[in-house]
Amino acid sequence: LQTFGTGDKAVLVSTIALLIVGLGAAAGVFELRRPGAGVVLAGLVGVVGIAAVATRTLASPLAVACAVAAGVIAATLVRWLVQLLRGEGRRLRLEPSLSRRRFLRAMAGTAVAVALGSVFTAVVRGTTLAASAAREALRLPPPASPAPPIPPGAALDVPGVSALVTPNSTFYRIDTALVVPSVDPNGWKLEVTGLVDQPTTITWQDLLAQPLIERHVTIACVSNPVGGDLVGNALWLGWPVRELLARARPKAGADMVLSRSVDGFTAGTPLEVLTDPGVDAMLAIAMNGEPLPPEHGFPVRMIVPGLYGFVSATKWITELKVTTFAADKAYWSTRGWSERGSIKTASRIDAPRDGARVSVGTVALGGVAWAQHRGISAVEVKVDDGAWQPATLGTGISRDTWYQWSAKVQLAAGKHRVSVRAIDGTGALQTGQEAPPPPDGATGYHSITIEAGA
Fold first, then answer.
1. Has residue 353 got a pLDDT over 80?
2. Class level of CATH domain 168-335
3. What is the dihedral of CA 259, 260, 262, 263, to 10 degrees?
4. Of the residues 132, 147, 344, 391, which has the fewest C-beta atoms closer than 10 A?
C-alpha cells in the first residue's frame, strides 16, 4: 500500500502472473535436463495453488477441484511439451495406436478441465448476477434520523479544492480483496458471537427494518501519507452498531470487537467506541444516497467516525466477535501495525498543485483539514520561513467530517515552499514531527513547492 497505493492489487496480480510464467519456464528447463524434475516442480506449484484456494474463506469444493485439475494439467503439459521438443513427437507419429491413446487421454483431460471451468464460471457468475440484481432492486428505507443539512459557508469557492462530499466513483478503495466479493443480500446474515450473554444473528431484512441513521462521515486509510488522497467524505446510511451489541449484551472484561469480512479480513475495534452513544458507528448499507457500491462493501460494511479503516471499516461484514485485545489479533495487527487507530489531525493543500507555476502577487490557496470526532477549529499556512498566518475555515458539516479552508498569500518571483497545519476542536495543534504511516498513521505538515513568475 505504501509503495503502490490503490494500484497494489494490479501490481500483485501482475507479479503473480509473471512468477507463474517464470516457474513454467523453469519447469521446462528442468524437465529437459533431468526428466521428471520439471513435472515435480510443476506439481509443487500446483500444490501451492491448491492450498491457496482451499484456505480461502470463500473456497468451495468446486473451486478446489478446478485448482487440482489445473495442477494436473500443468504437470502433464510440461512433460508432453518437452517430449515434443526432444523429438519424441516423431516416435509417436510412427506408433499410431500409442499416439491415438495419448491424444484421447489429452482430449479427455482437456474436456474435464473445460467442463470444471465452465461450471465454476457459471456458479460465480450466478452469484454475481444475484448480488447485482438485488442491489439494483433495493429501495433504500428513509432514515429515522436524517443527516443535518450542509450548513451555509461549508463550501468555499476555490477551484481545485476537494468537494465537501466525495463522489462514489472517485472515493478511494483500500482492502485486501483481489476480487471484489459478490454477496447476495438475500442470503446475508451478521452474527454477534464471543463474550456475550445472548449470541445474536440478524438478516438483511432484519437490518432494513431497523431505525436507520444518516450521517456525513469522513473516513481515512492509515496508509495515507502526509498530503495523500486515501481519505474521503460521504453520506452514510446505516444502523448504529451499539444497538446490535446491546441486544447481545457484552460480558464484563470484553474490550474489543473483531469484525470479520466474507473474504476473511478482520479488524479489531475498541468495544467502548462501538458502544459510545456519542459515536455514530454504524452498519452502513448506503453511500451518498445509493446502495453501497460492491467495491465499497455491498451489502453491509462498518463505518466508525474517528478511527482509521484498518481497525474499523470492515467491508462485506459477516461477524462481530466480542472479545479482548489480549485474546484476538486482527489482520493488520499481526503485520506490524498498531492495535489502536485513532485518526490524527491532518491538513492538505489541494490548490495549487505541487510544482505548479503561478503569477507573481496574490495567490489563492485551498485545501481540506480533518480530525474526525474532534473537528477543526483553525487552519494556518506559511510561505517559506515566514510566520504562520490564519486561513479562512469553512463551516464544518460536523466534527466527523473534513473542513475546507482557503487563504491568500503574496508571492514574489521565484520558487516558494508553502505549508499548512491545522488545530483541532480541542485546541490541540497538528504535530509537525514527520513520521511514516506505520504503525498508526503518518504525521507532519503537508508542503508544496510552487514557482511564481510573469
1. yes
2. alpha beta
3. 130
4. 132
